[in-house]
Amino acid sequence: MATIIATLTQWFAPWQTLYSGSKVLESAVTAIHIIALLFGGGLAVAADRAMLRAMRAGPDARAHALEALQATHRPVLIALAMSFLSGLALATADVNTFAHSPVFLVKLTLVALLCSNGLLLVVTERALRAQALVDATAPLWRRLRAATWLSITLWTSLVVAGTTLVNAG
Length: 169
Hints:
Layout: H1 2-11, H2 13-20, H3 23-55, H4 59-92, H5 95-99, H6 102-131, H7 139-168
Helix pairs in contact: 3-4, 3-7, 4-6, 6-7
């Protein structure tokens, strides 16, 4: 493992030198990372909240919330991609620190769980729309409710892990 870290550190040495030598670059990469999380997480949590409220309302509200949820997938995915790319830039700017950080591994795990849960949300939302299910007690609605709560929890945990990572580094 040490040789892999040493090799990666060597490969990314030019990037690390460029990154650490420019406050503008550091600020830009960090800002992109935070803004992507803000917009992606904000859109996702807002859609999750709307979905949870709609589940307590009537069939028309649930149908409308499903359409709104479907409309958030692309912007959230774009924000996640920007967050991933900027996170990669941040991690490769200091390979040695991040490679030895358990908090970094926790954050990566949370991102993987968030993406998996996002896929579950998309699949469930599409199935509900295809089947035009309006009964809020149907198993797909229960699965959507659980995935929605998990989404809110994961986005929140991701922010906590990111903050911890910055402060622990």
